[in-house]
Structure formats: C-alpha cells, structure tokens
Amino acid sequence: xxxxxxxxxxxxxxxxxxxxxxxxxxxxxxxxxxxxxxxxxxxxxxxxxxxxxxxxxxxxxxxxxxxxxxxxxxxxxxxxxxxxxxxxxxxxxxxxxxxxxxxxxxxxxxxxxxx
Length: 115
Prior knowledge:
Layout lengths: L3 E3 H8 L3 H9 L5 E4 L2 E5 H15 L26 H24 L8
Antiparallel strand pairs: 1-3, 2-3
C-alpha cells in the first residue's frame, strides 16, 4: 500500500479537481510534502478526510431530512380517483361514442375515410 500519492492520484481518490485539492491542502485538511520537485499527499490524510465527511453526512441521530421529493415507485400505478364531475363527463362521452358506433353499424359504412 502506498504511503503517499501525487496530486493527480489524490484528485482521483477524492473525486475533486486540482484547485479543490490545493484548497484542502491550504486549509490543513490534507497533509502534503515535497519529494524533489513533486508535491505528494499522504494517503492517511486522504482517508481521514473521507472518514470525516462520511461521519458528517451520517449523524448518530439518523439521516438529516433534505426536503427532497421522493419519486413515486415504478411499476403498477394506483388507480386514479375521479371526481363526480369527471365521472359524469366520462359516462356521457362513453354513451356518445357508443351511439356513434351503433349509427355507423346501421349505415353499413365505416364512416369518413381519411384519404
């Protein structure tokens, strides 16, 4: 296991860009040093930062409500409840469609063509 990594690998490990990594170094959250001309970051300080973030995002009291909307479950949808006015309108439309269908059957034609 490595003791230290380059800035580029440190960025990959934390999922941040180089600017954010340098900000974390300046804030003292990451321990770094020079090895020749290259700046190296201690892996233990990267792990310590990750652990600190995990503990901050998962408090002992349980998850903090975010106020985000929970999407509805996928799959079968629950039946829609119609208002009385919607039910009456749906019934009238069904009766009218049935009457139109019976008229077309009695006339013997299939109705107007679209050509």
